[in-house]
Amino acid sequence: MILYETLDKISNETLHQTFVEAFSDYQVKIDLPYWKFQQMIQRRGYNPEISAGAFKNQKLVGFALTGLRSWNGKTTAYDIATGIIPECRRQGITSNILAHIKNLLKEKQVEQYLLEVIKTNQPALELYQKQGFQIQREFSCFQLNKNKFIQGGTWEAEKVNRIDFQQVEDFWDCQPSWQNSAASVEALLEAFTCFVVRLDDAIAGYGIIDKKTGDIPQIAVSKSCRGKGIASSIMAELVKTAESERIAVINIETPQNPIENFLTQLGFESHVGQYEMLMKL
């Protein structure tokens, strides 16, 4: 018998153990030691009271970890990760977990439910569509081995403690995804290193990296300052700062986003595509 309960009494260590087992055969290899797992759930706003697990003989065999924030002016839940251990799949557990969470969200008057899914994961895509999620945007994810980085730009990038996102929102060509948002960066600010290039004492461009993981959530240049090598200079500093050999820029909205060509020119390769999906509650 499978029981469905919230995760407010389940330790992060137990969640991590089940996460590793559930994603052991995932189509994209996931390297997530415990410290990275803790960072992930903190950054994405994990809220155990609106997260749910499936329990078989008191063992956690499936889960949906949920974040909660304001998104586009609406109270929004976000699916941080959903997984079922291999031996318990194809039993309708994911659908039951999501149904349980939807009831929790409605009780708390959450207005919408957001997630991302790999475009080629057809079973998951169809499941989410049946649950009522609709595709909002398409994302592409890029990665780079440091030794393949193509150096460019001659501007001096200055290290700063943080970015005032209200000052740089006009730099964006599209809204960052949930995990790349200003709120996600601020939630784990101690993990990130920030650089800016100034022009006449004003910020002309900026970039942010988690130097341990090599993840770059944001890099942008003022529309009036583009074509001058500023972004390349910032990227060079970000890559140099990274302790990881792998640099990642995920969830770039496509198609026809200028940053795609920029990343390709620097040696990045697109390795997976995702859909952003939303369900109104």
Automatic annotation (TrEMBL):
<dbReference type="InterPro" id="IPR000182">
    <property type="entry name" value="GNAT_dom"/>
</dbReference>
<feature type="domain" description="N-acetyltransferase">
    <location>
        <begin position="155"/>
        <end position="281"/>
    </location>
</feature>
<feature type="domain" description="N-acetyltransferase">
    <location>
        <begin position="2"/>
        <end position="161"/>
    </location>
</feature>
<keyword id="KW-0012">Acyltransferase</keyword>
<dbReference type="GO" id="GO:0016747">
    <property type="term" value="F:acyltransferase activity, transferring groups other than amino-acyl groups"/>
</dbReference>
<dbReference type="InterPro" id="IPR016181">
    <property type="entry name" value="Acyl_CoA_acyltransferase"/>
</dbReference>
<dbReference type="InterPro" id="IPR050680">
    <property type="entry name" value="YpeA/RimI_acetyltransf"/>
</dbReference>
<keyword id="KW-0808">Transferase</keyword>
<protein>
    <submittedName>
        <fullName>Acetyltransferase (GNAT) domain-containing protein</fullName>
    </submittedName>
</protein>
<dbReference type="Pfam" id="PF00583">
    <property type="entry name" value="Acetyltransf_1"/>
</dbReference>
